[in-house]
Specification:
75% of the residues lie in helices and 0% in strands. The protein starts with a helix and ends in a 7-residue tail after the last helix. It has 57 residues and is mostly helical.
Length: 57
């Protein structure tokens, strides 16, 4: 019983470390680095969400 709990703790710690490393190195904070104010960030997000879909014929 204690072996199972220990293994689950090790698995959770590994996952936590793995996701922390992935976030730091592969998912930089794009909005924070490219825009100075919250208003600029919000405008950019709104523009990206509401742009029309381009269809290729």
């Amino acid at each position: 019983m204690t072996v199972g709990k220990t293994l689950w703790k090790i698995i959770l710690i590994k996952l936590l470390v793995m996701f922390a490393v992935l976030k730091l190195f592969f998912f930089p904070n794009y909005l924070k680095t490219n825009f100075q104010t919250d208003e600029q960030r919000a405008d950019h997000v709104l523009e990206q969400l509401s742009r029309p879909v381009v269809q290729n014929h």
